[in-house]
Amino acid sequence: MIKLIFFAVLILSSSCTFSQDSVSTKKSIPENFIEDAETVVTDFASFYTEPFNFSSAEWLYAAGIIGGTFLLFSVDQEITDAAGRETIQTLNNDFWDIPTRYGITPYATVFSLSTYTAGLLFQDDALRITGRLLFESLTISGVGIIVIRYLAGRVRPYYNEGEWAFRGLQTSNEFQSFPSGHTSVAFALSTVLAERIDNIWARIGFYGMAALTATARVINNQHFLSDVLWGALLGFGAGMYVVNKEKEGVMNNLSIQPGHNGISIVYSF
Known about the structure:
Layout: H1 2-15, H2 29-49, H3 56-83, H4 97-102, H5 105-121, H6 125-152, H7 181-197, H8 200-219, H9 225-253, E1 254-259, E2 262-267
Antiparallel strand pairs: 1-2
């Protein structure tokens, strides 16, 4: 089933026209690869240094999110008791396995790199850039997930130690509840695909699937609600960041120049 889902996503994304990539640079495969590698490193660094450039209003928003998270901690156990079921398994051979698999990191990584490789080898700019953005989004959000999990060391719900069980500096999976990795992966994938395809049906489909992934993690007793909300925030934030950076780069290279017979659009590279 999951193979069919990813195959369908690949066909869908490759068959859509991305307006921001309508001008082909016709660069060689090595040139495109080197440029993409540099972009990945630059975007990663700029994402994690962005807080140093926050305005006062942006810091207030960040403080509000952190404050809201602590409030949510206080009701996490009640929500888990109401929505969760008695299981300690990630996969339980039912409907919820589908959205859960959508958030599995190896599947998402293979999909992003396969999309990128296909675009690179066939010199399809739209497909190549989409694959690169998928990989960037997964990498940026993934590093954030790993660091926060290690620092927080939150005990998973199925241990029944409550919502305030944080051990700190833990690497064991049992203490990796906050934030949700599956949810982050799902939103990192869905955000890039939905925004690149750029129509209402794509947004409904991809964001809907990501929301189901988050729901599955709570129902399967793997995460508290605050865990999946932070996972969604990281995945969505990373996805929107790299998509917007790509748009900015394209717009910076495009210029409209007047001529004797009208106007011309020039792409510089």
